[in-house]
Amino acid sequence: TGAISSLQRQMEIQESKLRRIRSEKELLQKQLREREVQLQAVSDKFCSLTEEQRQKEAVVMMEEENRNLKQVVTKQESQLAEQNKLISELQGTISQLQAELVTTRLHLLRQKQAQKEIQSQVEELQHTELQTRVALELISSKFERFRNKIIQATFCVEGSQDPQAELTDNEVLEAMQKIINERQEFQQMLKKKGSK
User: Of 3-7, 65-69, 105-109, which has the strongest mean pLDDT?
Assistant: First the structure.
């Protein structure tokens, strides 16, 4: 947003310069037209003089006026050329700033779109995390009940001693494996004796 504001300010400055230069160009063109009117007035003045006076004064005044006018025209043409060049440069700068402004706005729009997508992904991940936590708590609860049942089944067997401290999962598994092995041995022994 700051970049867009900066580009817009630069465009306004360049456009202001362009308007000022065009105004100066119009002023120079107006001055040139005024000089042409003056020249026409001098020409009209000579028409009212006698032929001899007209010729003498015409030669002197026309030569002087021509020199002055040529200097003015040359100067004004030079100024106009410089201003046309500056106008062209300013128009190029304005076009470049407008292109940068469009690019910056497009980039900002893409960033906003990406931010929306990321926000949507974050919300989806948070929802998934919540579901996972609930599932984990449910599994943990089931596992704890299953573990307690294993402990009860393992240590409720005749001849077994109650655990003296909190059992680890490995100790529970070892005790359960021991019972399984003993039962398998008992089954084998019964099969050998022919008992069902």
Answer: 105-109
Both 62 and 7 in one domain: the answer is yes
Q: 79-87: long-range contacts (C-beta < 8 A, 24 or more apart)? A: 79/24, 79/28, 80/25, 80/28, 80/29, 83/21, 83/24, 83/25, 83/28, 84/25, 86/17, 86/21, 87/18, 87/21, 87/22, 87/25
Among 90, 120, 150, residue at a domain's last position: 90
Report pLDDT digits (tens) over 124-170: 999 999 999 999 999 999 988 887 887 777 766 666 666 666 777 78
Contacts of residue 170, Cβ cutoff 8 Å, sequence gap at least 6: none
Tell me, yes or no, whether 71 and 138 share the same domain: no
Q: What is the mean pLDDT of the chain?
A: 83
90 neighbors 21 (Cβ within 8 angstroms): yes
Q: Which of 34, 11, 24 is nearest to 83 (CA)?
A: 24
Residue 165 phi/psi, 5-degree rounding, is -145, 180
Q: Which pair of tokens denotes residue 188? A: 């084998």
Take residue 102 and report the two structure tokens written for it.
Answer: 């469009």
